[in-house]
Specification:
The chain is 25% helix and 27% strand. It is of the alpha+beta class and 260 residues long. It has one domain: Endonuclease/exonuclease/phosphatase (Deoxyribonuclease I, Chain A). A six-stranded mixed β-sheet has the order 3-4-2-1-14-13. A six-stranded mixed β-sheet has the order 5-6-7-8-12-9. Helix 3 links the parallel strand 7 and strand 8. The chain is globular, with a radius of gyration of 17 Å.
């Protein structure tokens, strides 16, 4: 199974680039997990994906957020959201069983400066995620959890740790919230294969950051221990982020391959 996680920053704005990427890069992706769709479910381009061989399950809303799983395999036991009215107003969670593996796709809140409402919401959201995992899954199940987590786990995951210290995505309490999720039973697949490699997944649109490699690693593919021995590769493809036309997302896709 080849699985891709990609924050497309609007599926309608990025659809042309996405399909060009699938064709030209020829990764033969089995499962596409996209975040920040920014479109209502009834306006999602289901037919275009079906023509490419994908069946899509979508949890989306107008203008903001939104996640989907597009799979060449059947998707069963679909879960949309946490089952909590407060948190599920924002469409950020979707999960389903593919073969014998659960795939969870997340778009974690961006947050804000310490003390602001969005700062607390982000930390509360992470706590809700932890409780949701405990209520619905166990670490001994084969699970792949992907998405835009809006946290750079370590200093190696940002281009300038001193300049970005204690900023959104690097605050110790944010990192601790994400590490608590990993401690639940997940492994960071990229860091597992490449302990010392610096590789970013997001670059600001401003100032040519992609060309200066001034980025952050905030998009991840995690897996539980039953899948570690089946992990074959993980990579970040900069090709679509470096396009000038069609206009790229500010994120690059992360691709992992498992023998499942």
């Amino acid at each position: 199974m080849k699985i891709c996680s990609w924050n497309v920053n609007s599926i309608r704005a990025r659809k042309e680039l996405l399909f060009e990427w699938l064709e030209k890069r020829n990764y033969d992706i089995d499962v596409l997990c996209l975040q920040e769709l920014k479109v209502e479910e009834n306006k999602f381009p289901f037919k275009d994906f079906e023509e490419k061989g994908y069946n899509c399950i979508v949890n989306a809303q107008k203008r903001y957020n939104g996640v989907c799983i597009c799979s060449k395999f059947p998707v069963e036991n679909v879960i949309k959201g946490f089952g909590d009215d407060y948190f599920d107003q924002q469409k950020r969670v979707i999960a389903g069983k593919i073969k014998d593996t659960y795939v969870i796709n997340l778009y974690v809140p961006h947050g804000d400066l310490r003390g602001e409402d969005k700062y607390y919401y982000k930390l509360d959201w992470y706590e809700k995620l932890y409780k949701w995992l405990n209520e619905n899954f166990t670490p001994d199940q084969p699970i792949i959890m992907v998405g835009d987590f809006n946290v750079a786990l370590e200093d190696i995951d940002v281009y300038d740790p001193q300049f970005l210290k204690d900023s959104i995505g690097t605050m110790p309490e944010e990192r601790q919230a994400l590490k608590k999720i990993l401690d639940w039973g997940f492994i960071d697949t990229f860091r597992y294969l490449y302990p010392d490699r610096q590789q970013f997944t997001w670059w600001d649109y401003i100032g040519g950051a992609i060309w200066k490699n001034e980025g952050m690693r905030i998009d991840y593919i995690f897996c539980t221990k039953p899948l570690v021995d089946k992990l074959k590769s993980v990579e970040v493809d900069l090709w679509p982020r470096r396009r000038r036309k069609p206009t790229p997302s500010d994120h690059a896709p992360v691709i992992a391959e498992f023998e499942v």
